[in-house]
Batch of 3 targets.
Target 1
Amino acid sequence: MARTLDSTPAVEPKTAGERPPRRRFRQTAGRQHHAGPLTYVLLVIATVVSLFPLYWNVVAASHTGDRVVQAPAPLLPGSRLLDNLTFAWDQVDMGEALINTTVVASLVAASTVLFSTLAGFAFAKLPFKGRGMLLSLVVATMTIPPQLSVIPLYQIITDLGWFDQLQSVVLPSLVAAFGVFFMRQFLVEALPVELVEAARMDGAHSLRIIWHVVFPVARPAMAVLGMLVFVQAWNDFFWPFIALTPDGNPTLQVALAGLGAGNHTVDHAIVLTGALISTVPLLLVFAFLGKHIVGGITAGAVKS
């Protein structure tokens, strides 16, 4: 009997301020919270509202110009989609415009990402005199309307003989103040200064640090910035319309400006067909790279 009493484990009395274990939080840890029916209803409504302009663009491109402007507007596809696509493709040489726009947008996006990353790294992690003042000047240039630079820029490209040439659109857009500020803000938080100092202690020079340290860390922000700049360059109209001509080396937006024009009338169905052609490549890019774009946007959203 004594052995039985001795073998029983002693229970320590609870202190007055001791809290009970939080079993409820342990049991619910790792569970997935499912959205309610209202959430799915709102998502479906938002999806329909977002896709309706694209759907109506397809509908308008499949009708005649007279039917598009009639009230009520058509809501179901017609039978002239292939005819309108063929007419729009041949009227302004849409194939050449697609190639020119792809070249311009790709070069502008690549150069902006490269130079913005280099400048953003310098402003974020390299100490030098006047860094704050120079960054303020870069940000201040974002407040200058682009219309103010049209006349001197036009004089420069005409003196160089670049009128109606693609370099007149590419070179003025090699870097953007927004890209520099965007990359600087990302690298300030994402790139520890100790990592740069450790690379220098190991004997790495500046180019090696940029290639092996800065670029891998900045890759998500570079992907997001590249996509934003690519879409902006793809849809740019103001300066390309001044520097290029529809009959020379037009981009898509310049070509669309002369699409559908006739005898003092505009065929809106043909114009919307050209807009549909210019939108499809962007949709394909988002379809194939959407996962990487979303991953780049949310890469720095959660800190460990």
Note: The radius of gyration is 29 Å.
Target 2
Amino acid sequence: MYLVADSGATKCDWALVTESGVQRLRTRGLNPAVQEAAYMRRVLASELGADAAPEAVWFYGAGCSARFPEATALMRTLLGERFPSARLGVESDLLGAARALFADGGGIACILGTGSNSGWYDGRGIVGNVPPLGYVLGDEGSGAAIGRELLRGVLRETLSPELCALFYRRTGLDYERIVGEVYRGEAPSRFLASLVPFAAEHIGRAEIRSLVRGVFDDFAAHVLSRYPSTLPVAAAGGVAAGFGELLREALAAHGRRVAAIVRAPLDGLIAYHETRR
């Protein structure tokens, strides 16, 4: 029996793998780089089944990387408290995506969700990483980037009047609230990414298709260009899966071969650890 988790700050997907099958559960997200220990301890205690006693726990999460050694150590401590007899593995969500997408192979693993990240995976670990820089300075290819470009087009009225009017009606937003959420809100990145469903709903419009394609072009030009062009690319995340056709089109235009696109890495991680028990 082992437990695998793929976590961001918003949600965490868990899979308890036993001889009789796989039990799945979703809890609130756990990110030790930005969340307090007391909050994460409550989530582990109240939202994860009390009966689970896995022999091993593999946790892949945002904030669990070499850049955040103290946060990674905190996550290991909290998991150790919750599962005192289990072997523990705490790794970054990027390594989790890479293992799910490539297993023992190599390539460029990408996460395109609320934010974005990427890494050169050699079949064992991440050996190169272009810093994602967050929604202000970077996060090209992400839901936050799509939301940012959509708002820019609406507020500056470079999108059609019809589409701008439709946006305001559907979202109930106005200039003051938008500025407040982006510059003073508790979670600006999540607010920006919350506008992705509007883009998806209207992807048949040429102006929205061009906008999303431009976000993926930026990702290829400013991020993927820093990696060797011979490496295959694979991507995980809701934005990657939701706009898979446009993502493939954009990366192909930049000379990149796309090996796979998945919505979530959990199934791939289950398969990865199943062969290594």
Note: The two ends are 9 Å apart (CA to CA).
Target 3
Amino acid sequence: MADGGPQLIALDVDGTLLATGSPVSERVAAAVRAAVEAGAHVVVTTGRTVLTTRSVLAELGLVEGHALCSNGAVHVDVAKGQPLTVQDFDPAPAVLALRALIPEMIFAVEKVGVGYWATGYSPGEYSLGDYLLVDHSALSSEPTPRLNGWWPEGSLEEMLRLLHELQVPGASWVHGEFGPWLTVSRQGVSKGWALERLRLALDVPSDATLAIGDGYNDREMFHWAAHSVAMANAPAAVRDLADEVTGNVLEDGVATVLERWFRP
């Protein structure tokens, strides 16, 4: 880490900044505010949509700067609350390939700033925005930054076995930690990819970057950062990739790390 602490700090949301369904703790929010006041770029970097990220930005007191949503596919201007860039792809080939492997899979595509189109109901962050039920043809008819898949009757282990056969040119996917769901994005788009674009735009030295996360979608972010930190509640395979492991989300692990350099 560069002298003086990190200048670009990437923070995952669920399982990192907060326990899903709970607010950000005051200690974590205070540590984030201290980093911002010291001049660091704090970038919420999440699989969440723009709609469901806005409340987290408000809880943290972030009123300007950048956020990266939908696993890096949507770059948001925090001050305006609107996307600056969206990395779309054609979901149709992925839907066809996944239906061939897992016919029962339920799909949802993100409509940025609006909600989702979906072929059925599935667990997830669908409390904000529209949720329109459509058939597979309509679902696949427009580009999207993110395609979600959920296998109601399956297991994560069986889904991963089947996905070894998945071949979709122009797309890449990441699976979830705790159930049979996955997210498909444009090939090469990830949290790490988006953070490197932002780092270059902000002219931050590569050795002044810090990333904290807990999920499989944080792996590229860990590879990108000069110093990576996994939450104690992360799967073992994710913890093994990080430079260090901090306390779990209920122990304010993010604050434990940030307070080394930034004291509220």
Note: The chain is about 30% helix and 25% strand.
